[in-house]
Write a structure and sequence with these properties.
Length: about 160
């Protein structure tokens, strides 16, 4: 049985989180979707250069696209490819999932936001969620709850 070398990286875990979406929206239904990426994007993601802040999903012609996600190109990547960091990336979803997302976003006024990018095996997956915007008082309540949980944790650690 061969030993794993210490230099070998395992590609598991979360790549990027959209913490702002959890603060700005009430997240209802979550769906896992695949992403269509190019080679330089995968290399940049492995290097940790992905950002999901202000990203959302648009449905055009029965296809879903991730808009606003930023993947910065590596300087050492391929030189003959023009890297576009904020291009629309196609999401891989079933027709049922796309129609359900389209119906709920158009009828009830919900938006579809990207909440996380993560590895599943050797593939990159994107977690998207149906979201409804929070009011200002909801955001304040979220902050108070978060502060209280931090204080409670500190008190328990001292005891």
């Amino acid at each position: 049985m061969a030993k794993k070398s210490k230099t070998q990286k395992t590609s598991t875990g979360t790549i990027a989180l959209n913490k702002r979406a959890k603060f700005e929206y009430h997240l209802d239904q979550r769906i896992e979707a695949g992403l269509v990426l190019t080679g330089w994007e995968i290399k940049s993601i492995r290097d940790g250069r992905a950002n999901l802040v202000d990203s959302y999903v648009v449905i055009k012609d029965q296809e879903a696209f991730l808009v606003g996600a930023h993947i910065s190109p590596l300087m050492t990547a391929c030189t003959h490819v023009v890297a576009e960091p904020r291009r629309e990336r196609k999401l891989l979803l079933n027709k049922k999932e796309i129609s359900r997302l389209f119906a709920s976003s158009s009828q009830t006024g919900q938006t579809i936001v990207a909440t996380a990018l993560y590895w599943k095996g050797h593939r990159v997956k994107c977690e998207i969620a149906l979201a409804k915007g929070k009011q200002l008082h909801d955001k304040r309540a979220t902050e108070k709850e978060r502060d209280w949980s931090k204080q409670k944790h500190r008190i328990l650690m001292k005891a």
